[in-house]
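Slide 14.
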Amino acid sequence: VNAMRGHAAEMGVVAPLGAKGLSELKAEIAVADDAAVPPAAKPAIALLGREADHITMRLRAIDDRLMQQHKANPVSRRLAQIPGVGPITALNLALRVETRQFRSARHFAAWLGLVPRECSTAGRQRLGGISRAGDERLRQLLVVGATAVIQHAKPGRRTASPPVQASQARGRLWLLALLGRKPRKLAAVALANKTARIVWAMMTSGEAYRPQPVAA
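Slide 15: predicted structure.
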């Protein structure tokens, strides 16, 4: 897609981003006169377009298989109830995490690299940046999910039906207070840390997700 856009832009043909913009680009290239787009360029760009369509179809097939695995896995379905945890993240956690190897939720978050690096000595605690140790893929999925939650955590914005809003009100207030004190990226890591601890608790206890009161 980037190659298509780049070659077309060199000939003065541009289109908006996204799937709709790509369709517009293909159509504009196809009907462009020879003065705007050389005849030899049209089939070459069309070939790129067909390859992009083929990759899109393959990705959809993979997504369908992953969704089937997610629906067939009870642990994955339960974890997907957590805000910021979608089917792909839930399935990764369900298939790749053995919670019995972690003594606590904090140990699990540390294994994911979501806790500060500690350099303490002589009874004085010194915390550094986030360690980023452990499983990079799982950490990335949790941080991306937390970032998506933060994008919708704005005062006065309605993001869910009233019953869901009521059950998540305390957590939302905690997140808004955190965003008032910290940059969005730091807040996303903190929320991912919190999510990881909830994941550990749910996988250890076998219980469904229940929003808990959170101290400000």
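Speaker note: The beta strands are 116-118, 127-130.
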